[in-house]
Design goal:
The protein has seven helices and 52 strands. The chain is mainly β. It has a single domain, classed as TonB-dependent receptor, beta-barrel domain (Maltoporin, Chain A). The strands form nine sheets. It has a 31-stranded mixed β-sheet that branches. It has a five-stranded mixed β-sheet with strand order 1-6-7-4-5. Helix 1 packs across helix 3 and helix 1 crosses helix 4. The longest helix is centred in the N-terminal third of the chain and has 15 residues. The N terminus is likely disordered.
């Protein structure tokens, strides 16, 4: 019969410095005094590798007071996956969003990135994201000892995670016991780009002065060059004025009409560079006092350059359109106002994050332990002169046909007259090859835009733990105070709001773009060949160097296209003071051991939003598709709000038998509103002819989401590394934020209403009969509620001493707030909900390790918005196979290999209906081969 295996708990304390299922680990990333005392008596051989990792993770799950899942390193500096998010997706209830083929953000139990609090060593790291989401690709897996996912809350945990609280732990030298030196070197190969790049990491830890002084230094650096093969549409527009006489042979369409905004084929080349460093200094002057200073640094840069070939559609100019039964335009022609362009795009993400912490752990008496923790963190993301979203266009006005059928990829072609010719915008029949002649290109839109982000976090906390020293009645009591201050500023940089970007919007005949600026780009005959419809997708187009084009046009026009700081920028400061108490009880019922944890957390939050706003003063026509807004002088704007929250929690564990554990947990949790939604400024969005005028504004009065949660689980631990569990959860969430719309007009400085110059008697110039400009303004507000519930199933089994083992888990999740695709007036549905499944098979015996992992996630609603459309965004069903293995040459050296996306799966997205194509992205396979060393 299986008995609780405390060896792995000791390994967790001695090797990974975790014990994170307990209070102190969840808050500071350190082990308890009892863990350290037990570790000091440890004389057994430490179990490493896959089986040791699973055993430690299982013990964390079993010993927790609530529902907790964990991932532990297989050895110091050796995590199960290269990417932390990729490892987390193996946990039941956890799914990920990928960026560039690499895991970046997590969703837990259907709640997306902003609903999950991510801590590093128990502290909130500053984030370079515009939202509250934490990007897991900024931290190397080699730096991490373990990750715990707390699906139920406790009063001692920092609030903010309706979905979960995730604690990432790094090692501590005094728990590593003596000198440790580990390192790895890898070669990374990207099959799409056919480039090989380096990755290396190293960790040194040692203790001195009879193990009273400890020093740990860890460094990691990774470079990668990737290629993403893509087709995309920025969005689908709803009821944007396609003439009824141009629909269905003049029969029109009675109902909603959905038309594509654009369609592009694109190849993106990314150069990624990540450098992490970790320094930990520890000093234990007495057996009762331990002082820790630590610093963590991350420099993560992505420089992405893309070349694409695309077409832009404008509703009122669409001709001969055909719709299906849903009102989706599946066939259209357009000549007037059509933009067919060759794009040079730049998407840079240049970030830096650093943090510093000090912790004093004082064992005041046999019963009382006190802790003081101070922490500061800062994250920055550069605007990079608009390099976060830079666009250079060379194109032409022509006539194009767009078709959507049963294939995933749409089809864009020219009027055929004859089949090998295209009739251009001037009615001249030209061979297709003419459009690949650089001499026919004209300058068009030149955009530089991006957000500069600065995030500062300061946290101070004092914690106490009272230990009664018995196993029944009141066992422990925990209490504390915490002060947290976060200040995040978002500064908009662009050349769009001042109209510079459209200096050449109308495809002028001059300047003549030099022919040598453009060369033929061949995407390859296998471009997106894993997806239906790829055989008719263009694979050859003209490419150019965007910076060269910018410089040329700046010289010709005498106008600088540089991004400028926009006045509609803002800063949100959030101060939260928390007080909490929690107690553990234990006893027996009918011969069964029962334990309970009960607590409450009180929080008071003050919010201040400061910014500047420039009022809109006018609209002017630039070409057949574009208008530009002009703005007046900026003025300061500010707002304040506050709220309090009482967050109780209760969890009960019943050991039905020595191996069978039942759990019940109930709690209230909250997630604060996204920071960008709280900005009181109004931002002008789309300004196009035909009444397509949009704006967005924030709401500083937004209240946090609140959720009442219930968890039930039954877990059977039938062997040292084997268990099976089933769990049910329900979350009743209030105060969901919805984006409502309102019609808004603007009064300009002379007291009159802003008018739309594309209306009236002359659609190409202002006149006396121009109508008042009516903007559709999107505003966030609280007001919706939803219930989310689901079932989690998990099995972990090792087949005796054969070396084989298997992990199987699945999550089934549902909600009463799902999307009705046909209802365009629906403003709310729960995003991120999807069923998921993992299957991992492994073999570990002697010097050999091998693991094959399968992950599946069902289709889900990712967002209620699109990049440049009116609809929603769905991510289609996705599955991925990954493989890894190693061979121990001796006790010190190990050869490792990894293959990511073994079967080269492709991510696809669509809008409201399946034929509203949005994205197909092929990130390809990736290989790694390396050498790990430890001494």
């Amino acid at each position: 019969m299986y008995k609780k295996h405390k060896l792995s708990s000791a390994v967790l304390a001695a090797v990974t410095a975790m014990a994170s299922a307990q209070y102190t680990a969840a808050q500071s990333g350190e082990v308890t005094e009892s863990d350290k005392a037990f570790a000091n008596t440890l004389e057994e051989v430490v179990v490493q590798g896959i089986r040791g990792s699973l055993q430690r993770s299982m013990d964390v799950k079993r010993d927790s007071s609530g529902v907790v899942d964990a991932i532990s390193s297989e050895d110091i500096g050796k995590f199960p996956d290269q990417n932390l998010a990729e490892s987390l997706q193996r946990i039941t209830g956890v799914s990920i969003d990928r960026a560039g083929g690499e895991g970046q953000l997590i969703t837990v139990r259907g709640f997306g990135p902003q609903f999950n609090t991510v801590l590093v060593n128990g502290r909130q790291m500053a984030s370079e994201n515009q939202t509250r989401a934490f990007s897991f690709d900024t931290i190397s897996a080699d730096m991490v000892s373990s990750i715990n996912v707390h699906k139920t809350s406790t009063a001692t945990q920092q609030s903010g995670g309706i979905g979960s609280t995730v604690n990432i732990a790094t090692a501590r030298p005094l728990q590593l016991d003596g000198m440790k030196l580990v390192g790895s070197v890898k070669a990374l190969y990207d099959e799409n780009s056919e480039e090989t790049t380096p990755e290396f990491s190293g960790l040194f830890s040692n203790t001195f002065a009879d193990d009273r002084v400890g020093v740990l230094v860890a460094v990691s650096h990774k470079e990668s060059e990737t290629r993403l093969n893509q087709a995309q549409a920025d969005g689908w527009l709803e009821n944007v004025g396609i003439p009824q006489e141009q629909l269905n042979g003049g029969a029109g369409h009675d109902g909603n009409i959905f038309s594509p905004r654009n369609y592009d084929t694109k190849v993106t080349f990314e150069e990624r560079s990540r450098t992490n460093a970790n320094l930990v200094l520890q000093f234990a002057p007495t057996d009762e006092l331990e002082l820790t200073f630590d610093a963590l640094y991350s420099d993560f840069d992505i420089e992405a350059d893309a070349t694409s070939y695309g077409h832009w559609f404008t509703g009122p100019n669409i001709e001969n359109a055909v719709t299906d039964e849903n009102g989706t335009v599946i066939d259209l022609y357009q000549e007037v106002g059509l933009a067919t362009d060759f794009h040079a795009k730049q998407f840079d993400r240049l970030t830096e994050t650093k943090s510093f912490g000090f912790n004093a752990d004082w064992h005041f008496s046999d019963n009382l332990n006190l802790k003081f923790d101070a922490f500061v963190s800062k994250a920055e993301r550069e605007a990079n002169n608009g390099g976060g979203n830079q666009l250079s266009l060379i194109g032409y006005a022509n006539r194009v046909r767009f078709q959507s059928d049963d294939a995933i990829l749409p089809w864009v072609s020219g009027f055929q007259d004859p089949a090998d010719n295209i009739v251009d915008g001037e009615g001249i029949s030209r061979p297709v090859s003419d459009y690949l002649d650089p001499a026919n290109g004209r300058a068009h839109v030149m955009l530089r835009r991006g957000w500069e982000v600065e995030d500062d976090v300061q946290q101070f906390r004092m914690d106490g733990l009272w230990n009664e020293g018995n196993d029944t009645g009141l066992v422990e009591a925990r209490f504390g105070l915490m002060f947290s201050n976060e200040t995040k500023s978002l500064t908009r940089w662009d050349n769009e709001g001042v109209g510079i970007h459209c200096t050449f919007c109308g495809y002028p005949n001059s300047p003549d773009v030099p022919d040598e600026f453009q060369t033929l780009f061949d995407a390859g005959s296998d471009f997106l060949d894993g997806i239906s419809g790829s055989g008719r997708t263009p694979t050859v187009w003209l490419q150019h160097n965007g910076e060269q084009q910018f410089s040329f046009l700046e010289d010709i026009s005498g106008v600088s296209f540089d991004a400028v700081r926009r006045d509609n920028s803002f800063e949100v400061e959030e101060e939260t003071l928390s007080a909490y108490m929690e107690m553990d009880f234990a006893g027996e019922i009918a011969g069964m051991r029962i334990s309970a944890t009960a607590g409450v957390r009180y929080e008071s939050t003050d919010v201040r939003v400061d910014g500047t706003e420039s009022p809109i003063e006018g609209l002017s026509i630039l070409d057949q598709t574009e208008m530009v807004a002009s703005f007046g002088a900026a003025s300061p704007i500010s707002a304040t709000s506050d709220y309090t929250a009482l967050l109780p929690n209760l969890s009960v564990n019943l050991e039905i038998t020595e191996n069978l554990v039942a759990r019940f947990a109930a709690s209230r949790t909250l997630t604060r509103p996204t920071l960008e939604n709280m900005a009181p400024v109004t931002n002008i969005g789309t300004t196009r002819q035909g009444g397509n005028l949009t704006a967005t504004a924030g709401n500083p009065e937004l209240q946090p989401f609140e959720s009442d949660n219930v968890d039930l689980s039954l877990e059977w631990y039938y062997d040292e590394s084997s268990y099976v569990s089933v769990g049910y959860f329900q979350k009743d969430v209030n105060n969901f934020i919805i984006n409502g719309t309102t019609d808004q007009t603007f009064v300009i400085s002379d007291g009159s209403f802003l008018t739309d110059p594309s209306t009236g008697d002359d659609v190409n110039a202002p006149d006396a009969n121009d109508q008042v400009a009516v903007f559709t303004t999107t505003l966030p507000n609280n007001g919706e509620a939803a219930t989310v519930d689901g079932v989690e199933l998990a099995l972990q089994h090792t087949f005796g001493e054969t070396g084989f083992g298997v992990i199987v888990n699945a999550t089934l999740v549902d909600s009463d707030a799902e999307l009705d695709a046909a209802d365009i007036n629906q403003k709310f549905a729960v995003t991120g909900l999807s069923d998921s499944m993992n299957l991992v098979g492994f073999y570990e015996k002697g010097p050999f390790q091998f693991r094959l992992a399968y992950n599946w996630r069902d289709k889900f609603l990712q967002s209620l918005t699109q990049t440049n459309g009116d609809g929603v965004t769905h991510v289609d069903e996705y599955e991925q196979w990954d493989m890894s293995g190693s061979y121990e040459i001796n006790d010190n050296l190990m050869v490792v290999f990894e293959i990511t996306n073994l079967t080269e799966e492709i991510v696809t997205k669509h809008g409201r209906f399946d034929n509203h194509f949005l994205l197909a992205e092929d990130a390809g396979r990736r290989f790694a081969l390396g050498l790990n060393a430890k001494f």
